[in-house]
């Protein structure tokens, strides 16, 4: 089992920045890829970014976040980060982190599929005002 706790959300104006953190416990963090997802009001949860167990591979949702968001991890601290720059009102959502169910050595690259992840945290709210 894995336990994840997100933090770092808040309210910012458009153009601002935030860095989200996700601390993990319960299993060997460095063996698994990690993902960030978000859920806006009235919408389904969607993939934002993922990083492989080694940190050598990353993936982002699409042009809406690529170039503005950066995912990283510090395996010594059992923490994954999501740096968000140039925030827009449409980035407003609850942001969740989750761990890949499959050990990194058995996964080629990273997965974007929500059902491949588990250990969802409680989420952290990000609100961007115009």
Furnish the topology, listing elements before pairings.
Elements lengths: L2 E5 L2 E4 L4 E8 L6 E8 L6 E6 L6 E3 L8 E6 L4 E6 L8 E11 L13 E2 L5 E6 L1
Parallel strand pairs: 2-11
Antiparallel strand pairs: 1-3, 3-8, 4-5, 4-9, 5-6, 7-8, 9-10, 9-11
Shape by Cα distribution: globular
Q: Give the low-pLDDT segments.
A: none
**What is the arithmetic mean of pLDDT?**
94
Q: What portion of residues is helical?
A: under 10%
- Based on secondary structure, the structural category is mainly beta
Number of strands: 11
Share of β-strand residues: over 45%
The CA-CA distance between the termini, in Å, is 40 Å
Order of helices and strands: EEEEEEEEEEE
State Rg: 14 Å
Give a quick account of the main beta sheet: strands, pairing sense, barrel closure: 7 strands, mixed
Number of helices: 0
